[in-house]
Every structure is written in structure tokens, then in C-alpha cells.
Design goal:
With 755 residues, the chain is of the alpha/beta class. It is flat and about 110 Å long. The protein binds phosphoenolpyruvate and magnesium ion.
């Protein structure tokens, strides 16, 4: 045996002895890199392990790089020198690594000082499991001895990594993993709390019960509990004046709770006629509601109905379990009433999961608006979920129940990474969105809730889409003109000085109002958006009057109409708008500023009528959610066809270009307010096709501004031209991915699309 092979064997034996004495996999790999570094005299030794089912290598242990990059620094197979070793499954030995064309500088990892690089693949039965690397500050080619040591050790540890992976996979297999139809936001880990919807007045059955004393006791106890709650709520209202919904709700409580006859009558129904408490309450209430209606007091009747619904709901659920909301929870619901989402306080709700997907379009928009991780359309057993630990992965539309500690660690790390990234975006959130070549991009907000606690100053250039239907969804009847004027005034005054584009009521399709039920076989192609408003001119006129009246003192209103498919719809809208303005000018006896008027491009046929439409409007706004869906006749929430919903499809790309060019030649501004505008690759696609106004949800604003500040518009325009000549979505998307990599932005796409 030569001296050379002898010293390798000695080093090997020492390393293997030390590593195999370790109890856990993590301890073993940490010891491995440390021992290799010492044995080879290198300045750094690192181990990258391939993530199961993904083409990504993750820094798993290091002696020499930043320790806090462990588990965070990742490279795709083929990316950087480490990725190249994995891709080629061959050793790479370089004296001057930074000069290699595949070298990738990873900020925060601490590689700056190293010159030489030796990387060997870790293989098991031809499958790449990882890469073992040593690095030196000095520019030197590693010798045969170091190469042999690394190759031998990589073969040794391959089986350990493989074993560890199968243990992890087995652990992960045990976890209950549920795929949802739609997800939004990032990741939440918390305890699940099942929300039980209130039993409604209508759906309570009339039933009899033998245990009369118990039924009566239950009823009185519930009344007492409600009385206490009302006292508490009144106190709260005195301290925090709530202008809207609360007042009606509270008066309903008051009138019934203070009425001793009500309790006597319910007791009489229980004891004399043998009704169960819920039925007795319903019967007594029905008489009272009829009386109120008879007297023409609709408000009193409505208040009573509301109160009775709450009372019955409490009786059925027998005083709902007190939920410990001291730390945030994941709310799990069968179907998610928009009102519930709107009431969610961000600090109490970590995430939410909604089982039904059919009625939840706006629920998910609301969740996104609030920045709460959410998954919708999940087929899990709601009866068996309360109190369990749950991971809501909004990025991958996935819910994990009772995850093992390895997965909890992995997701906790992802949350920490997201937080770090968000902090980076947040730092520049009030800086203007100016590209590297000095072009100012207009970044607007899509809103629907009032975001009371957010200070938007400097963050947004206007509201590009205000979804008025969301406030309608929070009511149980059509809001009056006064009520709407009050809402819109609040909004316009809050955003004084910047334009607020209010979209007229957009219901139908997947957005419904409880008081305007629309039952159709094919709702996406049915009575929705402007079609409803034109058929219901009173509703339309009321809303337009409220908007105009609200803007009298502010002048920052824009009005926009959804789902336009014919010129006639715009002409009718303008007639009603003119009538509203004329009436209000008379009533106020003063001229009123006309709001700028816009048309949404959501139905593809509009693109072929832009000449005529341009002479009737001040601007266009693309609702890409509906537009792409109608272009490809594909519902993005239907997993069977969702891949057809593709903004990078050559047809979509060419159509977007056509629309921006057409609007430009007609001298009408055009913006995009669909969700593509707020996605990392989507916003680049739009910029490259000539769009300079993008409107998005609040949670995306800071990120998109960060991206804009790190790209060059002239380069993007050139990229757009290349994209227009390509014939496949994959090739087009790849162009933008490469561009993001070039600009050091690709990590944003990765972190927003993988879990
Ligand atoms: C759209 O369709 O892109 C749009 C903005 O409208 P909504 O998502 O409210 O239908
Ligand atoms: Mg739409």
C-alpha cells in the first residue's frame, strides 16, 4: 500500500468513526463537513442535498459558509457550479471558480472569499442525492488525494442520505395532506378552529320535546348569556364608534331582551304545547314579525328576525365552545360567508380553510386582500378537525393536518424566509416604482375592504379597482342610496388627491348576493356584471347617484363598468350616468364634476370594438381573470382544465399586445387590474407588452414595486418582441424566467411558487 493511499484510508477511517458515532442525521452531516474540512485542509466544506420530488439542492450542512444559510440557500439542478455537478453527475475541480461561466454568486451565503472549488456528486443507483463541496481561498487545483477522499465519502454517505429520505417520506406519508382548488397568501401554522354557521330562522324545524324543564332552562340561560354579551358589546360600541352594521343588530337585541312578555310566551309554548325551546322561540317570533310587518315596520321585523336567528343558533349549538383566541388560529369553515372574512381581525386569524369552492370566488379575493393564507375547495372531514394542528399553504393550495415535526420545521423555515423577503420588499414600499432606466410605472391598489389600519401614503398611485360588490355582500338587503353615499364618501375622502376607480356592482357568475339569488345552468356565461345592472336600472341608478353625490366634495372618482360585451351597454350606462349627474346637479343646485369613465375588457369581443368604445370612454382596464378564462374557455378553479388558463399562452400574449397597442393608437390609457398584474412573472410580461399601469392586491404592491425597481423597461420591451414571435407558452415563460435570473430576481418566483 502506498503512503498516499494509506493516508487517505486513515483520514477516511477517522471521519467515518466520528460521523457514525452521531445520533441524528443532522449531527452526522455537521460532523462530516467539519471532519472533511480538517482532513483536506480546505477553508470550507459544504453538503447540498436534493429536496425530494423537486429539482432543487438545499444547503444542508457547512463548515465555512454562513451557518444561518443552512436550509435556506438553494440552487436548482443546473444552476451555479453545485447545480452543474448535480446536472452532469460529474466531479468539477477548479482553481478559479468565480471565472467559470456557470458560477453563481449567492448573496448572504458568505462565499465571496473563496477561489478554488471541488464538487463531487452524491449518487445512489444513478439518482442524484446531493453534492459535496470543498473550497479554498487560495487559487489552487485540488489534488488527486482530495478528489479520492471526497468521491469515497460521497459513496459512503449516499446510503445514509437515502435512508434518511425514506424515513422522512414515510413520516410525511402519514401526514394528512389535502389539495385545495384555490389558494392565496403564504403559509400559516396554527390550531384549527371550526366555525359553525348560525342556524337560520328559516331552516329551523318545528319539534316537540318531553324534557320541558330542561328546554325552558336552556332558553333562559341563553337569553341571560345574550344579555351579558349585549352589555359587553354596548360598552365596546361606546368606546369604538361603529358606524355601519352594528346599530341594526344591537337594536334587535335590545327590543327582545328587554321584553318580559317574550320570555313568558316562549315558556307557555314549551310547557303548554310541548315544543322544544328552538321551536317555541320560532313560533313566538313568527307572530311578532307578522305583527311588525302588518304595522308596516319592516325594520323592526328584520331586527327581530336577526335576533331570533342568533338566539336559535345559540340554542342549537348549546353555547358555542369558547375558543381560545389568545394566539391566532386557522378558521375552518364549510362555506365562507364574505361577511365573516371581512370581520376577521388579522391578528386573530392565522389562516383559513374553506371546504366549498362554488360560492367562494370573492372569499378568496377578500382573503388575498387581507393577506391571510387561505385554501379553498378542500375535501377534508370538518367533523374531525377542531383543535388539530394545521398548516395552510396558500402558495401550493394545500392543507396539512397534524404534520410531523420534520414538516413543521420545514414550513416554519419557509415562513421565516417569507418574512425576511417581505421585510426586504417592505423597506422600499413608499419609494416610487421607477425602472432601472428611469421609467415611472403606475402601481395601483385593488380594494374592496376598507383596510382601516393601513397607512397607504406613498405606497400606491391610486385605486385601480374598487370592488363595490364586496360592501353589498356584507349587507342582508340592497343598501340604500344614503348608505352607499356614506361608504363612497369615506373612501374618496380617505384617498383624497389620488384617483379612486369604483367598479359598478359586479354580481352574477361566481359572485352572489343573498338577496339577489341568481340560479343559472351556466352562470359564467349568464346574467352578470353590467347585464344585471342594465336590467335593473333602479339598482344601477341608485349606485351611480351615490357615487356622484359622494365625489361632489372630492373630485377623485372614476367609474368603471364590468363585463361589457356590447357598445349598447355602454351607451345605456352613460345615459343613466348622465341622468344621475343631471338630477344631482338640480338637487344640489351646483355643477358637478363628471367622473372619468372606464370600460373593463373582460369579454374578448371587446377588443374588436375598441374604436367605437374608445369614443365613449376615458380609459380601459383589463380584467385578466375573466378575460383569460373566456379566451381559453377554461375555469382556473377547475383542476381538469386550469392549465389552459394561461397568460403566457402565445394567443394571450399577442392579445395583450394587441390591446395595449390599440389603446395607444386610440389615445386611451389602458391598465391591468386582474391578478396577473400582481404576480412576479406576470407583471414583467405586461411591462414588456407596453403596459405601464398595473393594479393589484395590497399584499403584492411592495413586491411588484421591488421588481420594477430592479428591471430595465427598454430591455423588457425587447423581450416582449421576442415573446411575440414564439409559439409556445413554455418558451415564452422561459424568456421571462431567464430575464429574472439575469437580474437576480428569480428567487422571488421560486419563493412564491414552491412550498
Ligand atoms: C377580473 O376579472 O380580472 C377582475 C379584475 O374582476 P373580478 O376578479 O372581480 O371578476
Ligand atoms: Mg372580472
Amino acid at each position: 500500500m502506498t503512503e498516499h493511499s494509506n493516508s487517505i484510508l486513515l483520514a477516511l477511517r477517522k471521519i467515518i468513526e466520528k460521523v457514525s458515532a452521531k445520533r441524528t442525521f443532522e449531527e452526522a452531516v455537521n460532523s462530516l463537513v467539519e471532519e472533511i474540512r480538517i482532513a483536506t485542509g480546505a477553508d470550507c466544506c459544504s453538503l447540498y442535498i436534493k429536496v425530494a420530488h423537486r429539482k432543487v439542492l438545499k444547503l444542508s450542512a457547512t463548515d465555512g459558509l454562513q451557518k444561518d444559510s443552512i436550509g435556506k440557500a438553494t440552487l436548482e439542478i443546473g444552476e451555479g457550479l453545485v447545480g452543474l455537478v448535480a446536472k452532469k453527475q460529474e466531479l468539477i475541480n477548479l482553481a478559479d471558480a468565480p471565472s467559470h461561466p456557470n458560477f453563481k454568486y449567492m448573496p448572504d451565503v458568505g462565499e465571496d472569499e473563496f477561489s478554488s472549488f471541488l464538487g463531487v456528486p452524491i449518487l445512489n443507483q444513478g439518482e442524484i442525492l446531493g453534492v459535496l463541496v470543498i473550497q479554498c481561498k487560495e487559487k489552487r487545483v485540488f489534488g488527486e488525494q482530495e478528489e479520492t477522499l471526497l468521491i469515497t465519502l460521497s459513496a459512503q454517505i449516499a446510503s445514509t442520505i437515502s435512508l434518511n429520505r425514506s424515513i422522512k417520506v414515510n413520516e410525511e406519508l402519514k401526514v394528512m395532506r389535502y389539495k385545495g382548488k384555490k389558494g392565496s397568501g403564504s403559509i400559516a401554522i396554527a390550531q384549527a378552529v371550526v366555525y359553525k354557521p348560525p342556524v337560520t330562522f328559516e331552516n329551523i324545524q318545528i319539534m316537540y320535546a318531553d324534557d320541558k324543564d330542561i328546554q325552558s332552562e336552556l332558553f333562559h340561560q341563553t337569553m341571560f348569556q345574550l344579555q351579558m354579551e349585549m352589555d359587553k358589546a354596548n360598552l365596546y360600541l361606546q368606546e369604538n364608534r361603529h358606524d355601519m352594521a352594528a346599530s341594526g343588530y344591537m337594536s334587535g337585541y335590545g327590543s327582545m331582551l328587554d321584553d318580559p312578555e317574550f320570555e313568558e310566551e316562549v315558556d307557555a309554548e314549551i310547557f303548554n304545547k310541548g315544543y322544544a325551546a328552538t321551536s317555541a322561540v320560532k313560533i313566538v317570533a313568527m307572530h311578532r314579525i307578522e305583527d311588525a310587518l302588518h304595522q308596516g315596520d319592516d325594520d323592526k321585523a328584520r331586527d327581530m328576525r336577526d335576533f331570533i336567528s342568533i338566539l336559535i343558533s345559540r340554542l342549537v349549538h348549546l353555547a358555542p365552545k369558547e375558543t381560545d383566541l389568545s394566539s391566532p388560529v386557522v378558521v375552518v369553515v364549510q362555506s365562507m360567508p364574505a361577511a365573516l372574512v371581512a370581520e376577521m381581525t388579522k391578528d386573530k386569524i392565522a389562516g383559513f380553510v374553506c371546504l366549498d369552492s362554488s360560492t367562494s370566488a370573492h372569499t378568496s379575493i377578500l382573503a388575498r386582500d387581507l393577506g391571510i393564507p387561505a385554501v379553498i375547495g378542500v375535501n377534508l372531514d370538518i367533523a374531525d378537525i377542531d383543535g388539530r394542528t394545521i398548516i395552510v399553504d396558500g402558495q401550493n393550495s394545500e392543507v396539512l393536518v397534524d404534520p410531523p415535526s420534520s414538516l413543521l420545521d420545514e414550513y416554519t423555515q419557509l415562513i421565516a424566509i417569507n418574512k425576511k423577503e417581505n421585510n426586504l420588499f417592505e423597506k422600499g414600499k413608499t419609494d416610487p416604482a421607477v425602472t432601472l432606466d428611469g421609467k415611472r410605472i403606475t402601481v395601483q391598489l385593488n380594494a374592496g375592504l376598507d383596510h382601516k389600519d393601513t397607512d397607504f401614503s406613498g405606497q400606491i398611485d391610486g385605486i385601480g379597482l374598487y370592488r363595490t360588490e364586496i360592501s353589498f355582500m356584507l349587507c342582508d338587503k340592497f343598501p340604500s342610496e344614503e348608505q352607499q353615499t356614506f361608504w363612497y364618501k369615506n373612501l374618496l375622502s380617505r384617498f383624497k388627491g389620488i384617483q379612486v376607480c369604483m367598479r359598478t356592482l359586479d354580481v352574477g357568475g361566481d359572485k352572489s348576493l343573498s338577496y339577489l339569488p341568481i340560479e343559472e345552468n351556466n352562470p359564467a356565461l349568464g346574467w352578470r356584471g353590467i347585464r344585471v345592472l342594465i336590467d335593473q336600472p333602479n339598482i344601477f341608478k341608485t349606485q351611480l347617484r351615490a357615487m356622484i353625490a359622494a365625489q361632489k366634495d372630492f373630485g377623485n372618482l372614476e367609474v368603471m363598468v364590468p363585463m361589457v360585451s356590447r357598445l349598447e351597454e355602454v351607451l345605456i350606462t352613460k345615459r343613466i350616468l348622465n341622468e344621475a349627474i343631471g338630477e344631482l346637479e338640480k338637487e344640489y343646485d351646483t355643477p358637478i364634476k363628471r367622473p372619468r369613465f372606464g370600460i373593463m375588457i373582460e369579454v374578448p369581443c371587446v377588443g374588436l370594438m375598441m374604436d367605437e368604445l374608445a369614443s365613449e370612454c376615458d380609459f380601459f382596464s383589463i380584467g385578466s381573470n375573466d378575460l383569460i378564462s373566456y379566451m381559453f374557455a377554461a375555469d382556473r378553479n377547475n383542476p381538469k382544465v386550469s392549465k389552459l388558463f394561461d397568460a403566457f399562452n402565445p394567443a394571450a400574449v399577442r392579445y395583450f399586445k394587441y390591446l395595449s397597442a390599440r389603446a395607444k393608437s386610440l389615445q386611451r390609457p389602458i391598465s391591468v387590474c386582474g391578478e396577473i398584474a400582481g404576480s412576479p412573472l406576470g407583471c414583467l410580461l405586461l411591462l414588456s407588452l407596453g403596459y405601464t399601469t398595473l393594479s393589484m392586491n395590497y399584499s403584492q404592491i411592495a413586491m411588484v414595486k421591488y421588481i420594477i425597481r430592479n428591471v430595465d423597461l427598454a430591455e423588457l420591451i425587447a423581450l416582449g418582441k421576442r415573446a411575440l414571435a414564439l409559439n409556445s407558452s413554455v418558451k415564452i415563460k422561459q424568456l421571462y424566467i431567464e430575464y429574472m435570473k439575469e437580474k437576480g430576481l428569480y428567487w422571488i418566483v421560486q419563493s412564491k411558487s414552491v412550498g
